[in-house]
Please model this.
Amino acid sequence: MSARSKARKRAVDILFEADQRGSEPGAVLEQRRAAGESPTNPYTVTLVEGVSAHRAAIDATISNHAVGWTLPRMPAVDRAVLRLAVFEVNYQPDVPTSVAVDEAVRLVKELSTDDSPSFVNGVLGAVVAAGPPPEVPPVGFEPTNPAV
Model:
């Protein structure tokens, strides 16, 4: 398993825990750091902080493409994996879309229900087809001609 795969798994653990506690993912990350359980990979921090920062847009994207499903109705693991994958697809230009989708499907195969891989793959397929929300630039985006 690659370092980024491990970072994704750790980020899903944190996102899932935050969801179950009704806490912010950043707060759970800080609690784990305070307890001496800091993530071994900085990409875990990038993922958790990125999902947290863009949560409203990510949740809207998932809701718009999960036909017949609301966020609360989804299994919590699927919700966490989808949030992470949508963040990577829409906000991490250095991550190939196919990698983000494949990793998400692999995670739900390992962690969720038998129906979850096809569900997550279908939602992410629709997200990819729609493209990133035009009003939100990817993380690290800098306009070539910024207004002064």
